[in-house]
Amino acid sequence: xxxxxxxxxxxxxxxxxxxxxxxxxxxxxxxxxxxxxxxxxxxxxxxxxxxxxxxxxxxxxxxxxxxxxxxxxxxxxxxxxxxxxxxxxxxxxxxxxxxxxxxxxxxxxxxxxxxxxxxxxxxxxxxxxxxxxxxxxxxxxxxxxxxxxxxxxxxxxxxxxxxxxxxxxxxxxxxxxxxxxxxxxxxxxxxxxxxxxxxxxxxxxxxxxxxxxxxxxxxxxxxxxxxxxxxxxxxxxxxxxxxxxxxxxxxxxxxxxxxxxxxxxxxxxxxxxxxxxxxxxxxxxxxxxxxxxxxxxx
Length: 298
Description:
Elements: E1 2-11, E2 14-24, E3 29-33, H1 40-47, E4 55-60, E5 63-64, H2 67-70, E6 73-76, H3 88-98, H4 103-116, H5 132-144, E7 150-154, H6 162-177, E8 181-185, H7 189-195, E9 198-203, E10 206-212, H8 213-219, E11 224-230, E12 242-247, E13 251-256, H9 262-269, E14 274-280, H10 285-295
Parallel strand pairs: 3-8, 3-9, 6-7, 7-8
Antiparallel strand pairs: 1-2, 1-4, 4-5, 9-10, 11-13, 11-14, 12-13
């Protein structure tokens, strides 16, 4: 288990992260979420010892972090950093050796992962000769080749087309199933919703919301419905029963006032528009994210 206690980081009087506490268990995917400048990268960098916290403690398996711990960490940074003039295989082997792998072992693992990512034929190409997506594959391989216990992925889907995004999603799930501890930092709320078991939403260095994803959704899921319809739905915005509405071309997500029963509301609007679909729903993580960020202190 990775455990972070009361983490605070200040830079020249500016507090980037303030009093954050969370834990991530083996086999879990933990979503570290927030807008740009929220403090996600600062939090990650303290965990991997790039920067020191101002105050707070970090534990792995109930022990303070040691140098040996950092060889058990795989990190995919948001800003990619490969040696562009070097060959693909040489970059992978160099980074694997830094993490304590022997060259023979690293060569075997590199060959296997290059084949799995379908870029084996690029092994002797220079990094700069690869597309952005294939460079991203090399970076991903470099993060996981040494079989880390803790894997930190910062925007791992950047640069991938939909097919490769699906491949990476399945790979992340399989790594979690194998017992890895995974921290996922992403702006793609739909992806986080599909992958994460727990989340921590931060803004301006402060915790805004945290917990098991189903519990978080349940907390913010009061009286929310979705309708698909045909006709002019503009009148929905002005109905007194409506607390908030996201109205699109042919469907709407509507939060009703607390004292309104969804089916009573449905009976009211049926004579006006043609309802194709109606359901009581949980709010999406994207909606929770937007609403909480809007409500958080400036």
